[in-house]
């Protein structure tokens, strides 16, 4: 299959031919990747079973993992779901459009393979101008998982999408690098108290300010519990080389690196700027100064090390506050939960 590639510039979105062409493909049941504020999504008409099936095929995604339906606004969201608890109004007001996915009772409008047969559906109103424009142009709910091959880190640039899916999908809309860099927060809103199923772009602290109380899926802390969000059980974000998280002093981190080098391994280091400056590894990627920068750069770093010839990646343990919760959730998965503490 030939993959169309449209490169957009920022001020070119109104009456944009590329967006119209991409929307027409979506309407015709094709699969197209597009940027959102979190990561690139791989979109298809959520009401068209065959179109949605193409997403699963292109990604190699397990059929039991439901997709998020993307819509342009609250009115479109209401068309896909049953009644919701009052706090959802406040969450919509506070965080949409933006990186928050609401799990609500499905009313059956979307195809059954979007929800993987569940009675609930994940719905999100993305804020990225390209995603917004595309959703408005096609006037459809768009099912979209992250636009990576299943098991790879989510794509934060169109190049990442191209590397994974060129030849497997109908088009890629290149709107530049995404902002947040990690996926949306998935929140179960089917009960009286909301439950975070996947930490992401909207933090627990932000949600608490709006709803007063929010719970987190126990499976996030305890590996032996079955997660309520089916996608959370997979070993995602695998960098294809072992990754160790070191929760300790600089001295401890350097000891690990040196110990690995002594066994003949080439060692890659992922850490914040000030730590990278102080340690000696074979290759190092500085993620930034603060947790937002670290989130934005993490997936690119994991992809870079996948392609380079390191045998092991050593990574700093970041504070699990704010967006740090999502950063550490993804890192622990990449590390199969191996964390070394002093
Ligand atoms: O930021 C994002 O959310 C990106 C962009 C493209 O919007 N999308 C994304 O989709 O990360 P995906 O498919 O990679 O992850 C969706 C997650 C999975 O863990 C899935 O199991 C969960 O949301 N999910 C979807 N529908 C659900 C439902 N009805 N109940 C529980 N979890 C659900
Ligand atoms: Mg994904």
Automatic annotation (TrEMBL):
The gene is rimN. One of its GO terms (biological process) is tRNA processing. It is an enzyme of class 2 (transferase). The keyword Lyase does not apply. Required for the formation of a threonylcarbamoyl group on adenosine at position 37 (t(6)A37) in tRNAs that read codons beginning with adenine. Residues 16-202 form the YrdC-like domain. This is Threonylcarbamoyl-AMP synthase. One of its GO terms (molecular function) is double-stranded RNA binding. It catalyses: L-threonine + hydrogencarbonate + ATP = L-threonylcarbamoyladenylate + diphosphate + H2O. GO terms for cellular component: cytoplasm. Its EC number is 2.7.7.87. It is found in: Cytoplasm. InterPro entries: DHBP_synth_RibB-like_a/b_dom, Sua5-like_dom, Sua5/YwlC_C, Sua5_C, T(6)A37_SUA5, TC-AMP_synthase_SUA5. The keyword Oxidoreductase does not apply. Belongs to the SUA5 family. Keywords: ATP-binding, Cytoplasm, Nucleotide-binding, Nucleotidyltransferase, Transferase, tRNA processing. ATP binds at residues 61, 65, 120, 144, 146, 154, 198, 237.
């Amino acid at each position: 299959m030939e993959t169309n590639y449209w490169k957009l510039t920022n001020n070119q979105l109104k009456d944009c031919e590329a967006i119209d062409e991409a929307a027409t493909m979506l309407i015709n049941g094709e699969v197209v990747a597009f940027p959102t504020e979190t990561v690139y999504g791989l979109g298809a008409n959520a009401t068209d079973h065959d179109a949605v099936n193409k997403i699963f095929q292109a990604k190699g995604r397990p059929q039991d993992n439901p997709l998020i339906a993307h819509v342009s606004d609250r009115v479109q969201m209401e068309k896909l779901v049953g009644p919701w608890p009052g706090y959802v109004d406040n969450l919509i007001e506070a965080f949409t459009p933006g990186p928050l996915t609401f799990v609500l009772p499905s009313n059956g409008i979307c195809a059954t393979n979007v929800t993987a047969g569940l009675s609930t559906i994940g719905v999100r109103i993305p804020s990225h101008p390209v995603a917004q424009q595309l959703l408005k142009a096609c006037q459809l709910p768009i099912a979209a998982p992250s636009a990576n091959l299943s098991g790879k880190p989510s794509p934060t640039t169109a190049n990442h999408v191209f590397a994974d899916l060129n030849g497997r999908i109908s088009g890629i809309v290149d709107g530049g690098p995404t902002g947040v860099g990690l996926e949306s927060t998935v929140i179960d809103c089917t009960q009286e108290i909301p439950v975070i199923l996947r930490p992401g772009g909207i933090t627990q602290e932000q949600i608490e300010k709006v709803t007063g109380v929010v719970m987190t899926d126990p499976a996030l802390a305890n590996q032996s519990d079955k997660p309520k969000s089916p996608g959370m059980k997979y070993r995602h974000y695998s960098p294809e080389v072992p990754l160790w998280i070191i929760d300790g002093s600089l001295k401890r981190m350097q000891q690990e690196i040196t110990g690995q080098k002594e066994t003949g391994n080439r060692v890659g280091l992922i850490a914040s700027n000030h730590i990278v400056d102080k340690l000696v590894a074979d290759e190092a990627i500085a993620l930034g100064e603060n947790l937002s920068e670290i989130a934005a750069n993490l997936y690119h770093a994991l992809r870079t090390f996948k392609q380079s010839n390191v045998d092991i990646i050593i990574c700093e343990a970041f504070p699990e506050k704010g967006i740090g919760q999502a950063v550490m959730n993804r890192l622990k998965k990449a590390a199969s939960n191996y964390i070394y503490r002093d």
